[in-house]
């Protein structure tokens, strides 16, 4: 049974988004929140409403659109300004307006930061903590406090840092998370400080840990804090965050569940979610952040359970547990290296069934599909985020061919700019294809080459397939995949299309971005027509 | 003074080379060995002579060519085969032939591995350890023993694992390194086991630690072992290694020197080498392994000391030590301010100073730059990963115009495919521009439209600016930025260019991917020429 009194608190959307190179849209944040909920975290810190306009919008949309099965949303903000009242501080009011059930307040707990960064006194800083916590409690919110720069502050003036924590609890804070904001602590220091604070705050005080990885010990520091009595852990998916990143929440929860025997992730009533989804969710989120996954990442990395074939290969086959620290299936990873959810026959069979195709009775089709998926993934395809392309591949192997809605003769796209900096470029495309017994040539303009190709393809097909009218390209993602020594990079394009009722995703891969996009565009049209029950004309 | 009785033992060339995607030539290994020696490690494990032909050659060439100022070379190998004599085992003889002053023997210390992988008895395995160690000692070598799978073995049968260690010491081993081969330990377990072994082996026994990062705790596990009495640490540069990698030796030594006050790296008589070289050497080695550096790597990563939050920029300027766990100069790294969404005047001023432009005395320029950066970021630009574009913007505001190396009249790119699925597409581009007093028209092909434009621009400019010859596009990132409902998406392109010595990044944004790429390509050429001191011709 999951221990609900233990908090798994994710801050990917707030502190993780501080990472260089991460820029999340509101839609990205909503999608990530759903994935985190599926994983089974207890709290999702969504951002800083009032300070960051996009975060204000996130909470507005989340209140209406986000259907979480387990996690609670937390809004992050600061204690009130010096010399004001919490109730009159617009930044504090914005936290209320966010309608998040939990508010996490960052509070200075290092005297030097209070004096030098806030330019106030230590005493007024304590007053700010007390006043802001008490105000938000009166307004009916659960209040967590992030004691910023706690460990460095404790080393400088332990009494003051302790007082900041006690003030927060006295004012009604439910949790105080001790933050190693600069990330330089080592596990033994963390343990000693947490034990000291526990002794001061009492055994019932709910203490948390917020670690950064500057000394390479964020995961170990978090575990040391838990061993010393913390029952609330903060971290980010894939360890995203400023500088060296935050504690990788995935490694933290995997260690707690698998090495400490402490179930901390919530599971759905049907047993879904939790640790077996760890690898899939880690990779899905990296698709959204567009940060390449780190192959050596503990538990979920593509290499995490990979063994160089050699001396011990047969021994590994007989006694896998002698060569791995844990069963990779427990975290949804794979000893065989192909990290994809799709790689094994069993999961492909399952996926086929989900899409309405029973493959159990057709083992030869299942074998061919498995082998094509493996080949395709080795070449840069990913089907995790492209169900429609996967289904077309499946249909092709089941029926012997993909649906023949049209036959392409040629296509061309031209982008040109006739002028210097500032002159807009223009894009056009021409498509020649055969459909409905005719040869059709269509040309269209677009705001870029892919858009022009999309318009030209659509224009060519519309007279034969008017059903295409409702299809709209709603998302387009590009990823350059590094290849190993000496080979060229390849480009992967993911396209999402909507017909107003449902949406579907297709993938294309090639040395050339336009070519990869064309593959995804045509797959999208074919899948959409097939799904609508349109016969090939 | 460096503690010479403490061993920093590097195994990048042996265990690190097990990483997927690393393939080192003998010349690569010799170069890396020199860099490791410069860093000041005590021991360099060069490979497994006799088992790996390239490693045999490495030791042959090292004996003749490698002039190490401090480090000793170690040859890695295994205990003799069951049922033979060490003196007659060709693999053991190859260790002698390597002429390495130190031999590190891997020995089974988990009873299950002795029985199931070696298919021998526990007793014979102990005999193999005793016999092989004693033989090599008689031949005048220093002998270290890697007790493989020690921690898992200890959990299964502590008495047997302890006996393996004691046998090695009794036979004359100078060091026994306890190996967490499967990498799943946590620091408290490591500490308890090391304390147990120390009690059994006596206070003078030299124990070492060899950690892998499967639980995300390799660095902390190594420190826990040192705290419990180990005086020999093994690891690899950048944490290279199989699966999740080995303990990152760089983070281990930085933590020992900076956080434990324990100087462990040797310095040259002139003070050269050691920790201040950490970042440079980490990056130099990643050039040789051709593994992209991990930006979030502790101490040496490009982001390790980068700050994003514009809010605190003014405070960081005054009190940098309140915002960093250690002075980046101590490890040869640099504090870097990221120009980000929250860009304030203070962070732009600081950024300008880092790039060598003093803006404090020119407040009107600072205002214009700040306002342009804010506008640009609102339109999708990001300068945190595009220093070169930021500097061009700065220079434009300081000098009134950007450097006028060339004037573009027009460009065009065409991508076409004449055939159905499977036919390759072809891309070409034409650029018309004015430079060096001429009008130049150049056309080039490429594997995609951006590559074709890059080739055509380069071809057009080369006759006027031969300096461009050395520039190479080394990374290309594309991101589609979702805009809010109802507006078109914009595309952001980041390009990294290298001239073989340094690399720089530029950004382009537009509704059209090709247009955005063109902007980043031309900025890259301009920045590179300006940086090389080339005058506009």
Automatic annotation (TrEMBL), chains A, B:
Enzyme class, UniProt record, top EC level: transferase
Stretches assigned to the Pyruvate carboxyltransferase domain: 6-279
Swiss-Prot/TrEMBL keywords: Amino-acid biosynthesis, Branched-chain amino acid biosynthesis, Isoleucine biosynthesis, Transferase
Gene Ontology biological process terms from the UniProt entry: isoleucine biosynthetic process; L-leucine biosynthetic process
Pfam families noted in UniProt: HCS_D2 (PF22617), HMGL-like (PF00682), LeuA_dimer (PF08502)
Entry's Gene Ontology molecular function annotations: (R)-citramalate synthase activity; 2-isopropylmalate synthase activity
Family: Belongs to the alpha-IPM synthase/homocitrate synthase family.
Identification of the protein by name: Citramalate synthase
Organism in which the protein naturally occurs: Cellulomonas shaoxiangyii
